TrEMBL record:
Enzyme class: ligase
Organism for this UniProt entry: Croceivirga thetidis
Family statement: Belongs to the 5-formyltetrahydrofolate cyclo-ligase family.
InterPro entries in alphabetical order: FTHF_cligase, FTHF_cligase-like_sf, NagB/RpiA_transferase-like
GO molecular function: 5-formyltetrahydrofolate cyclo-ligase activity
Keyword ATP-binding in annotation: yes
Protein name listed in UniProt: 5-formyltetrahydrofolate cyclo-ligase
NCBIfam families xrefs: MTHFS_bact (TIGR02727)
Length: 185
């Protein structure tokens, strides 16, 4: 399947989920993350969800990271790129024009300092390729990270067999976590 077809199909599928479905699947994904060998790392990049798009609720992951005393880095859209800020007790979040809770300012974190990135997606395939919203924010961001950064997709759905129109600038995942399974690529 082509990305635009996958994007349309999975937006529609996700739209059919109830808030209760999203909450329970999000908690299952958070619990399954304990199986991923990432807990020796320090800096974890976490997206905050667009609630009206029924994105995975990352609050349970945030709580897990805080409980393990990890440095949590949050993104903020700046033009066509993401900026990254350390989450602290003083961080003020404000909803962007796209409905994304973002830090207003704070301690800027360089991409090269980040160890693990939780990557938002609509769908993924059996090779670790993913389909997002199509704006390329995460591919541009991940291309600036150190090459050994661990990229983990979070999906409420199981993988599709193949995404047909992958290009060189698409950056694959090392892992994807669903409510049912941990996928390693």
């Amino acid at each position: 399947m082509l990305k635009h077809e996958i994007r349309a199909e999975f937006k529609a599928k996700r739209n059919l989920l109830s808030i209760e479905d999203i909450e329970s699947k999000s908690l299952e994904i958070s619990n399954r993350l304990l199986e991923v060998p990432i807990w020796k790392f320090s800096f974890f990049h976490l997206f905050l969800p667009i609630i009206e798009f029924k994105e995975i609720d990352t609050q349970p992951i945030l709580t897990l990271l805080q409980g393990k005393d990890k440095n949590i880095v949050l993104p903020k859209v700046n033009g066509n790129y993401l900026e990254h800020f350390l989450l602290t007790d003083n961080t003020i979040l404000k909803q962007s024009k796209w409905g994304i809770p973002e830090p207003q300012d704070g301690i800027h974190i360089d991409e090269k300092k980040i160890d693990v990135v939780f990557v938002p997606l609509l769908a993924f395939d059996l090779k670790g390729n993913r389909v997002g919203y199509g704006k390329g924010f995460y591919d541009r961001f991940l291309s600036k990270c150190k090459k050994e950064v661990v990229k983990i997709g979070l999906s409420v759905f199981e993988p599709i067999p193949k995404i047909s129109d992958i290009v060189d600038s698409d950056i694959p995942l090392e892992y994807c976590v669903t409510p049912e399974k941990l996928y390693t690529f």
